[in-house]
Each structure stands twice: as C-alpha cells, then as structure tokens.
Amino acid sequence: MAELGRWTQAARGGLDTDTGRGAVVPPIYLSTNYTFLAPGEPREHDYSRSGNPTRDVLNDALATLEGGAGGVSVTSGMAAVTLVVEALVPVGGRIVAPHDAYGGTWRLFTMLADTGRIRVDFVNLTKHDDAARALDEPTDLLWVETPSNPLLRITDIAATAKLAHAVGAKVAVDNTFCSPLLQQPIAHGADIVVHSTTKFIAGHSDVVGGAVIASDAGDHETLVHWANALGLTGSAFDSYLTMRGLRSLDARLRVHAENAEALVDVFDGHPAVMALHYPGLPDHPDFELARRQMSGHGSIITVELVGGRDAVSHFLDGLQIFHLAESLGGTESLICHPATMTHAAMSAAAQSAAGIGEGTLRLSVGLEGRDDLIAVISEALERVG
Ligand code: PLP
Q1: Which end of the chain has fewer CB atoms < 10 Å from its terminal CB, N or C?
Q2: Whether 46 is catalytic
Q3: Residues 123 and 220 in one domain
C-alpha cells in the first residue's frame, strides 16, 4: 500500500474515522459526559476535559504530521507554552530562550522567573557561540522559535538541540510560523513541538488554540496528565474548526507563499525600506540554513521602514486590504506594528536587543489576488517616500 505524504495526510486528517455511521467528516462530540458501564467501568471517554473524541482526532492528526508519539490540543498557544513549562520544568529549573521570542512567551517566562518558578536566560540562539555559552551549564529546557517573531531569524534546530542534550535539557520548538508542512522539528532533534494553532493550522482567524506534540511517549503521557490537571485542554468545537482548517493547510500555504514572494519583490530595494526580513531572500543571513531546515519560506514578511514611526503612519494611512491587527496565518492579510502591538509586553531594552524598532512592520500575507496586493503595497511605499 502506498505510504501517503504529509500533504495528503493533512488533507485527509480524521476523515472516515466514524465507524458507527460512516460519516466522511467525523462529527463534533459536544457532550461533556460519557456514561460509565458500571461503577469503576468507564468507556474510552468519561469527561471531556480529560478526553474528547473530536479533540482526539486533532491530536492524532497533529502527532502524525509532526512525527511525534502524541499530541495534546489546548485552549491557546500560550496554554501550550504554559503546559510545557508546568509539565517538564521543575521548580527553580532553568530555561534558555531566544532573546526575540514572541512577546507573550517572553512575558510568561519573565513573570515566572520573577516569582521564582523558573530561571530564564534570553540568548541570541542564531549565534552558535552565544548558544554554546548559555548551554554550558545544567539546563532543563531549551526553547527555540524558528523563524522568530517578528524578525524571522532562523535557529539551527539540530545544532542547538545537540548542545542542549549534552547538558541534559529537553528541546521545545515553537513551530507556529511554519506549521508541520514547512518544518518538522522532531526530525531535526527536538523533543517537543509547540503550536499556536490559532495561526496557520486553523487558518481562518476564528479560533484560538494551541498544541504540544512530544516525540517521546513518556513525555506525551506527562503532558496529557498535566493538561487535564491544569484544565488546559481545548474544546470540542475549537478542535473541530481547527481540524477543518488543517485539511486545507497545504493549499493555503502555497498561495500564501506565492503572494508573499510577490510582495518581497516589491519591498526589495525600495528606497523607503531600510531592512527586509524574509528567509527566502538569498541575502538573508541564514538563507542556506532555512533551505536545509524548512521546505518553504512561509508568508510572513517583516520590514523596517526608513523614517521610523512617521513612516509607519504614512504607510498605514489609507492602506487597503491589510487589516491592522495582531495574529497571523489567516486567509486575510494582516499588518502589525510589533513595538506597540504583539511585542508591547517586552521592555524597551528587550525590544531594542531583539531588533524591534519604531519603524518595524510585520505582514501576514493572505490569500487575496496577487495583483491587488502588489498594487496596495506599492502605493503604501510611495506614501512613505
Ligand atoms: N507562539 C508564537 C510564535 C506566536 O506568534 C503566538 C501568538 O502570536 C503564540 C505563540 C501564542 O499563541 P496564542 O495567541 O494562540 O496564545
């Protein structure tokens, strides 16, 4: 029998699993309770926080796509980050994390460090020497986010995982920007993969969710146990919507990328653009690594405009199609000003260390017509000057 590729597995996720009635698309199980056969004799499911058939379908699909032992779907990407810390990092344990992690992750780790729950060191993981220095002492968890949000820096998963494993740390990779169709961290040595499924996986900006996939069955069991104990597991309805999005992920990613590449050409070399960050550009500092590690370049583009905040105002003033909003990975194009939006929780010093400036804009390129996208971005750049 033919072994089905990841793209087909994503498109067919969960289909034809309803053995009772033969529904092609499995139904949503909204019931919170399941009857016991007798006292002490539960069926496969007893209570929806602990286990739910609709969530199981999503968990299995994500574990298959990431090549993991199992998946746990939770209520948000931040719930996924919380779950990894609570389940796998002991009290007072040490985390090494990227200096330009997503602002919410940065805030959570900083708050947990302030209360003494963990110790955290933020490091530029794209610099091998810095990563090696940070991972030269006992560490419980290496947190990797690649490409990073918003500057799209690429961390070498295999190389940093080797350093982390040598000091006994587990390696978690936030794979939100790629989804399992563009990057599979476990194949590069990661122990844990984290997603904000809110983004590309669900893909329609109508559900907030997260997931944690473990490569090791023991870690998976620990995560399942903690997700139930903490009450982080995702709802049946959100799981259903996320699963529906997952089936069109490959098709969406291809159009997202085509449109993003067209806009990269518009930004590239324009006098209003001081810096252009996109891992598919041959002059991106980690172009070769991105090619090795990812099977596409994604559809997030970050630009630094000449003229800082004023330039941002001119660019956004009258900008069509793109909504000024946080989040990314939906069918619609979005634009965000990280310094005041997604990364506002970071201190000014941390923003500056991460390279986020007043003139930085992050674009999530949607599925609209390519020519229209080119036209509106070209007009916006002319407004900047
Ligand atoms: N990780 C990354 C890379 C993100 O961009 C985000 C949100 O933007 C999160 C995690 C948090 O996800 P959520 O908003 O679903 O909690």
Answers
A1: N
A2: no
A3: yes
